[in-house]
Amino acid sequence: MRPLPRAEPDFPVKAPVACDDASALTRPRLLLAAARHGMVQYRRDRDLARLLGRVPLPAPAAAELAELEAAAELARRAGSPLWSSIRHVDLLIALLSERALLAPMERPAP
Q: What's the whole-model pTM score?
């Protein structure tokens, strides 16, 4: 028997997540879609206390969440058995939500 040919998806496998002005990270589309849907139910006090153990201001929270998310991404790519998809999505939800809070503050005044 011949092996079946590998089917290539007809959609992009990864989608960019901007990490700062200088660079962009790529994450699987499913992780980002789950995080975007979860942003609707994000509550800073509850979620940051659970993820970080405290509720810092948005800028320090975003920096710490970015580090934790980067570690989760490395674990995912390495195929680590310690990687948790639930925690990774939770980190992305918090990170995207905190960056959304910072976005109006970073825009220059006209």
A: 0.75
CA 102 – CA 69 distance, rounded (Å): 18
Q: Which residues pair with 17 in a beta bridge?
A: 25
Nearest residue to 33 (alpha-carbon basis) of 85, 109, 105, 108: 85
pLDDT one-digit tens code per residue, 49-71: 999 999 999 999 999 999 999 99
DSSP 40: G
Q: Which of 109, 108, 102, 15 is nearest to 57 (CA)?
A: 102
Phi/psi for 22 (5° steps) reads: -85, -25
Angstrom distance (rounded) from CA 38 to CA 102? 18
